[in-house]
Amino acid sequence: MPDGDQSLLVFRLSPAGLARKDLREFAGLLKDRVSGGRPFCCMITDDRELLRLNREFLGKDYPTDVLSFPSVEPDGILGEIAISIERAAAQASEFGHSVFDELRILMLHGLLHLTGMDHEGDRGAMARAERRWRKEFSLPNGLIERARL
Question: What is the pTM of this model?
Fold first, then answer.
């Protein structure tokens, strides 16, 4: 868990050459600019862990790329994000960009969920927000846009 106003990035798995420092800096940017200064925790792990979390909390029997768990504490940490490095690597390859960019896309998407957005029923509000932030952070197409294609 983050202490004070720091966001925490936990690497349970990371490929050789992954710029951890740069991802930590991006997490700080997300905290400062997207979450209104509220810290969050992001765990980079594997498909097995995302499968377990998806089964346990959502009743879905498959690994996914990103899961968000909002906090029940209104004034503390915003929540927690779990990302599969294996899904991120596969999606980066499929869409022709770096694993670093894919991790940033997934972090942004997960954080928008932590702020209360839900692309399944918000009439495009999350898609617009994600598009605006991706443009600001110079990121490739995000998850919502990919699903529409």
Answer: 0.87
